[in-house]
Amino acid sequence: MEGPGADAASAVAPIAKWRSDFSRMFQYYLDRSTPHPLQRWIGTLAAASIYLLRVYCVQGFYIVTYGLGIYILNLLIGFLSPKIDPEFEALDGASLPTKGSDEFRPFIRRLPEFKFWYAITKAFCVAFLMTFFSIFDVPVFWPILLCYWIVLFVLTMKRQMMHMIKYRYIPFSFGKQKYTGKKSAASTSGSPRD
């Protein structure tokens, strides 16, 4: 005998299955995109271009764009910062090397590149969807917001650069370091062998 909630449960089951299938498929394609950073960032650049074109055509949603800019600035700070900040964390042996004689430790970001990309892409998609609702189109004088954001960006980056200089780290690596090894005496002498 079925109870009064049986109809509601049978109606929810297909929705839950569809949601589970969609989530699994989305995660599959997200995992497949991981080793392709250039293509991912090109896709994000396309999403950003579509968003900027939408804002330009509508001539509004400057508050949404300002909020998006602040959010991206916050993500950028996380991307450029070390996972263990020597200024705030107790030195437990996992800190950045501060002297030339210290052991090399690779730079580990607080916000990894993939999560940085994913958060920015989601932010552009959400901001794009917000442009379809007039409640978010608050009338403002956009040049003031732009000037304020530029000042905030310069001050934040100055502070981040000073932090990098103080603790001597560079958040970027340009290629993998290669071990060349010691050259043998025979190969450096220049004499050909028979």
Helices and strands, with pairings:
Elements: H1 6-33, H2 37-58, H3 62-80, H4 113-130, H5 142-167, H6 185-189
Helix pairs in contact: 2-4, 3-4, 3-5
Organism: Citrus clementina (Clementine)
Membrane topology: Multi-pass membrane protein
Main location: membrane
Structural write-up:
With 194 residues, the protein is mainly α. Helices cover 61% and strands 0% of the residues. The chain has a domain of 134 residues. The chain has six helices and no strands. Helix 3 runs antiparallel to helix 4 and helix 3 packs parallel to helix 5. It is a multi-pass membrane protein.
Shape: extended
Helicity, as a percent range: 55-70%
Helix and strand succession? HHHHHH
Q: Helical stretch count?
A: 6
Global mean pLDDT: 83
Note the main sheet: none
In short:
Helix content is 61%, strand content 0%.
Structure keywords:
membrane; transmembrane helix; Rer1; Protein RER1; transmembrane; 194 residues; mainly alpha
